[in-house]
Request: fold
Amino acid sequence: MPDRLPHTLRSDALDNRERILDAARALFSADGLDVPMREIARRAGVGPATLYRHFPTKQVLATEAFADQLRACRAIVDDGCTDPDPWRGLCLVIEKICELHARDRGFSEAFMSTFPGAPDVAGREYTMKAVAGLAQRAKDAGCLRSDFVLDDLILILMANKGIHTRSTDTQVMASRRFAGLAIQAFQACPQHAPLPPAARLVSAAPDSA
Amino acid sequence: MPDRLPHTLRSDALDNRERILDAARALFSADGLDVPMREIARRAGVGPATLYRHFPTKQVLATEAFADQLRACRAIVDDGCTDPDPWRGLCLVIEKICELHARDRGFSEAFMSTFPGAPDVAGREYTMKAVAGLAQRAKDAGCLRSDFVLDDLILILMANKGIHTRSTDTQVMASRRFAGLAIQAFQACPQHAPLPPAARLVSAAPDSA
DNA sequence: ACCCAAGCGGACGGGGGCGTCCGTTAACGT
DNA sequence: ACGTTAACGGACGCCCCCGTCCGCTTGGGT
Reply:
């Protein structure tokens, strides 16, 4: 008489769970978050009910599916912050994050859509602070223009999301060039004109960098 | 015995037509092209059939609804090309077009979606040439970086489309700042590093500026 | 005042996505 | 080997959008 708590999934259930996550990752990456749930189920070779049992909502599924992408995101930021040259670090962050988003349309959508202020902010606040620090150091080094604000980074990320082509390769290439342009725009330069005022995109930022 | 060809609409029909166009403009602008046709009909105070009778497809409706936006677009380009200072002209074009797109989400979507190469290119080819000429002059004047290509403009437009906030005012503000950054990135500058290669976004361009 | 066709819009059938229920299958512990 | 129950998935009802048909209204010419 097995009365232990079902903290452990049955082997086939676990297998299905993995296949669902794989399918979700593949479809989200290629087509964005708007793919129907049933399509994910179909691709995973399970019924709709199974999909919903494991992940009651698309939000949950996306969160789980993009867990490692999010980890990669953090790693990129950490790497950038660790770089002895803050400007180089910031450039790396911009380039890498843009590429990550370009490669994975679904992640990009999910990432930006949660920005308005979901309680998912587990480590975001912290990450934000880290980037803010990096930016401040880049400014102090005279590499980053002094009127840069964190919202500019969000702006670039949103804009990068707008770049959309049929082939992923083209998309990555375009995104790379875009990142290059953004970096160029951020670089301190004696001849640069003052920018129009920044719009408040991320509400939670007591002191912007 | 009225047997003349019905080249002229009945007065009520014409009225409805205008109301439909107004409703379409309002909804497209605010919510993008994805609004249901019936919502447009509802807002215009007509039945679905009437809407479909006047505009058999959403494409047609959008084309008619955005006719003047398109005209405005051309006017902006013309103005820019007329400016004696080509760099100033180019900057104006970028700023104005970005703002136009920011103010009208539907137009932005429609404009970019037809880019892949619809036969709607009535005057686009010509406009493109005009901008290419403007860019060339700006380069010759030493204001525009020499590795600029026309695709960079498309890139910026696509990116601008990605900027999306709830309030239109915030959106315009953000878009303005974005345009400022783009201009900064395009400006010739002794210290600028080489950019990653441009991706081919608009196929029809024998000689890029 | 009358007529008639241009114009109208409610209503319909089709299709697709959503989330859930429930009868069936098969994993796992004994 | 067997029983229990976790897990499965086909099928259902719901809602929204689409595009069209057809009986009714009304503009406008005589």
In short: The radius of gyration of chain A is 20 Å. The interface with chain B takes residues 152, 155-156, 158-165, 170-171, 173-174, 176-182, 184-187, 189, 191-193, 195-201 of chain A (CB under 8 Å). Residues 1-2, 10-13, 36-38, 48-49, 52, 56 of chain A lie near DNA strand C (CB under 10 Å from a C1'). Chain A has a mean pLDDT of 91.
